[in-house]
Amino acid sequence: MIEETFTIPNWRRNINIFLVGQFFSGITSMVVQYSIIWYLTKQTGSATILSFATLLGMLPMVLLSPLIGPFVDRTNKKVLLIVPDIVAAVIAIILAVVGIVNKDFPLWLIFVSLLMRSIAQTFQMPTIQSIIPTMVPGKELTKMNGQLGMIQSANMIIAPALGAFLFSIVPITMLILLDVIGAVIGVTVILFVKIPEHPVFDEKIKILSDMKFGLTQLKDNKGLWYITLMGMVFTLLFMPAASLYPLMTMSYFKGTVAQAGIIEVIYSVGMLAGGAVIGFLGNWSDRMKPILMSMLVMGIGFGASGFLPGNQKGFILFAVLNAIAGIATPFFNTLLMAMIQQSYPPENLGRILGILNSLMSIAGPVGLIFAGPLADKIGVNSLFIIGGLGTLACGLFAFLMPATRNIDILLQEKIKSESEVKD
Asked: Which of 13, 78, 233, 411 is in the most buried spot, having the most CB atoms within 10 Å?
């Protein structure tokens, strides 16, 4: 359990600096990511290529997260945040130079760059997840996760629109260099942020035993373990549709790159609104209730999208459904992460989150293997129907399992009793 004592002076100013850095470094990275995906969509128009690109982006999370977790717990957190930014900048420079020289990008190099960017993110994600509870008081944890979600949603609002605009007027070789600017901003900000460290740097890392420790800790918490299994099924059923969003707009609805960007913006505006509710009002006594409600809304929104007519009228309704689903989306990820952070000591979070992130993602590549061929055969809209029904089924599973449905009630009671003992 996380202790309720907290010692960082000016913690709010410290975390605000951190969030500002995350905003500016994140937006440049996302503009580059969208530009690469739109480049692939425009050049190939292939669902299989897009699915393979998304698969490369997911593999490091699946394969490396359990190995990275022990390093997160025993390595300087600033180093783990800075080095991936530098690696991403170097990759951007190499890709830009090759593009300028050849006047085009070979597909294999684009795939390599997507893979390396994902590896960098695989290091940063559990690091950020594990340091947040050390940077803010325990009672502010849910709200702060909501505000971090708002930052990420704001990036997702601005990046598609900015990316679509820049993609139309700036050569892709120049756009990619935005990663360098983002790295400079990210590294500079991290140097000025205070991140509490646990004095375990000299403890020897034992990969297999550390992985076993993280898995055991997760399985011992039945509620979180069932949510993890549910997340695996959800990822398997939903990720194929999620990877083909640009194709849904540009192929099924006969839209443009700009309209693909508009859909991303609309969905992200919804996420920002949902994150704002969590960030400023996020003090639920039972966080599983809004989580289950969010799964119901997402399932209906995504499933209904697959039944829309493939024309511009259908596109407008698609935009409305995405706005509603976007509002619901942050509740699942944000509230679940807050519960996980409050369930384990900060010095163990890296190993536990490494296993959790890997298991939650492991079904994604399996689904993506079939995503492209399925979309080409039965239509990309059918994948949205499958994803929506899968979301509803996962929500029903969580509701019917008492260990999962009551997980936050039991957690809050435990935190309260431990606090009373200390007093």
From this structure: 411
Q: What are the structural domains, with CATH classification, of the chain?
A: 11-196+204-417 (1.20.1250.20)
Q: What is the spatial distance between Cα 225 and Cα 227, in angstroms, rounded to a whole number?
A: 5
Residues 402-419 have pLDDT tens digits of 988 898 888 888 877 766
Contact call for residues 22 and 127 (beta carbons, < 8 A): no
Question: Three-state secondary structure along the chain?
Answer: CCCCCCCCCCHHHHHHHHHHHHHHHHHHHHHHHHHHHHHHHHHHCCHHHHHHHHHHHHHHHHHHHHHHHHHHHHCCHHHHHHHHHHHHHHHHHHHHHHHHHHCCCCHHHHHHHHHHHHHHHHHHHHHHHHHHHHHCCHHHHHHHHHHHHHHHHHHHHHHHHHHHHHHHHCCHHHHCCHHHHHHHHHHHHHHCCCCCCCCCCCCCCCHHHHHHHHHHHHHHCHHHHHHHHHHHHHHHHHHHHHHCHHHHHHHHCCCCHHHHHHHHHHHHHHHHHHHHHHHHHCCCCCCHHHHHHHHHHHHHHHHHHCCCCCCHHHHHHHHHHHHHHHHHHHHHHHHHHHHHHHHCCHHHHHHHHHHHHHHHHHHHHHHHHHHHHHHHHHCHHHHHHHHHHHHHHHHHHHHHCHHHHCHHHHHHHHHHHHHHHHC
Tokens coding 374 = 């399925």
In contact, 329 and 242? CB cutoff 8 Å: no
User: Is residue 173 within 8 Å of residue 99, measured between CB atoms?
Assistant: yes
Count of Cβ atoms closer than 10 Å to residue 9 Cβ: 7
* 3-state secondary structure labels for all residues of 11-46: HHHHHHHHHHHHHHHHHHHHHHHHHHHHHHHHHHCC
For residue 260, pLDDT beyond 90: no
Q: What are phi and psi of 194, to 5 degrees?
A: -90, 120
Helix axes 178-191, 77-102, angle to 10 degrees: 160
Q: Which amino acid is at 51?
A: S
228: nearest Cα among 398, 342, 402, 83: 398
Report residue 263 as tokens: 């859909």
CA distance 385 to 378: 11
pTM here is: 0.72
Residue type for position 129 = Q
Highest mean pLDDT among 86-95, 295-304, 409-418: 295-304
